[in-house]
Amino acid sequence: MQMGNPLLNMSIFGLFVLITLFIVVRVATRSGKSAADFYAGGRSFDGRQNGIAIAGDYLSAASFLGIAGAVAVYGYDGLLYSIGFLVAWLVALLLVAEPLRNTGKYTMADVLSFRMQQRPVRTAAATSTLAVSFFYLLAQMAGAGGLVALLLGITDKTQQGFVIALVGVLMIVYVLVGGMKGTTWVQIIKAVLLIIGAGVICIMVMLHFGFNLSALLGEAVAKSPDGVKVIQPMLQYGKDPLSFVALSIALMFGAAGLPHVLMRFYTVPTAKEARRSVSWAIGLIGAFYLFTLILGYGAAVFVGKDAILAAPGGVNAAAPALAFHLGGEVLLGVIAGVAFATIL
Questions:
Q1: DSSP characters for 222-270?
Q2: pLDDT in tens, 158-194
Q3: End-to-end alpha-carbon separation of the chain, Å?
Q4: What mean pLDDT is reported for the chain?
Q5: How far apart are alpha carbons 106 and 33 in whole angstroms?
Q6: 161-183 b/e with 16+ CB inside 10 Å = b?
Q7: Of 101, 108, 112, 116, nearest to 133 (Cα)?
């Protein structure tokens, strides 16, 4: 199954890449050359800017495509992921943000080694950072592969791999050219576009139901092969209570320690701005995860579980398929561009 116009999809994504690369180059020419400039953006961002950038970091392809798809196919259990990720920000706010910023260091390893033996602490921090980043990137690249198959009509695995590798090269270019300051502005733009795009689709879905959430959920129950189980827990994840609790704990504490998110607390000038960053991030991320509830159940109603699972991207196809159903090629093209941008 292929949806929309591949040329239009890639043109919108290409436009996003050109605009953001231009911004990154401009920022790079105005940035200083010190370590603080490259790794921490000169600590020049305020809490609002950094909070939006954190939301951009956090609302990745795994969030936009994966959670919306999980809700569409598995119902309530898919929402567990968004709840767990959101609660993680309370942990970050209370236990991580201010203490981390108060040290004035660059990395978590710097903070931990401040009071401990440096060599074993730095070895442990480096190993865990690389391991977490590797598996996180696998989720991002899986989303990229599904998008390529769905939106460009490329089913050959070698060609998909080439496109994914090209996206990886783009990631490296952004970081090498712009440093933390350049990538922060990219994340700010991406977060704004993603939240607006998801919000527009949610409004279109709710218009069909008179902005009555109960009506949407009732229609999802009526059209789901799983019936009422689609709005009840333990349809897919947590077949027993112990697994359910274990998943919740893993989501909450795991997300609070993501390396690329923790780095953002060094880009603000004070601990007060670090706390403000998390407050902005919680608001934006919380709103977006409410959107995933509507996106997921909307896809279940308008696209259907069987059609989503049959698509090349599997559950990752739910949000793009819903956009195509509601707005045709143009809306799909915009959402495709934003979805590709989340992978960056």
A1: HH-TTGGGGGSS-SSS-SSHHHHHHHHHHHHHHHTT-HHHHGGGGSSSS
A2: 877 887 788 778 888 888 887 888 888 888 988 998 8
A3: 25
A4: 82
A5: 16
A6: eebbeebbebeeebeeebbbbbb
A7: 108
